[in-house]
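Researcher: Here's the sequence for the chain we discussed earlier.
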Amino acid sequence: MNFRLLEADEIEARVSTVTEKGCSVLLYKDARCDMRILDETVGPENWQRSHEVVNNNLFCNVGVRIERPNGYGEWVWKQDVGTESYTEAQKGEASDAFKRACFNWGIGRELYTSPFIWFDAKSVNLDVKNSKATTRDRFKVDEIEYENRRVSWLKVTNTKTKAVFTWGRSKNLNEYNAKELIDDKQAAELERLIEAAGVNYDKLLEKYGIDKLNDLDMAQYTAIKNKASESIVKKATEGKA
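Model: Thanks. This is the structure I predict for it:
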């Protein structure tokens, strides 16, 4: 049984890690999304959930009634454990267990193929106190496309600053837009990022067969930017460990 892929307005984008360099964002689904997809795929009467405590951990069981060729309906169950939330611990733990059990059924599993999402300091409203950075900015998934049930195109916007993160190649882009070269501002931003990440500038140019960063197209720019940003976050996290 294959459940449909999540649409952009069904996906939540939440802040994950915040540093003075910017913040990373992770993609989530909520329990209401799981319920809606279960209802529309198998029908409200053909799925059910239950909870049980095992070794002091709350598990959720999600059962789906499967029709067999002989006309006999069989209940198939999948289970997973939840973790407490910062607010309403028991309710949050039950909801988390339900969402994880639905991942086992394949609902929203494509989110695990999402790229590393990073917004630099210029794209985020940061509040830095005692060397600790936080942000109250909110993020939204504007567009998402898939290929073989994997994310192939993603557009996320910071709703406060209007900064946009894009990754991959949309099916709606024509060949000219897909190969559009980056501008001077993007090249300068990328140069700062790769320097902070400790990337060898000359080796990077050699790898892509170019003479300068401005010769990169948008897809290459996004891939390098994400990789460099991920490296910076990793260094910052390891430094605080």
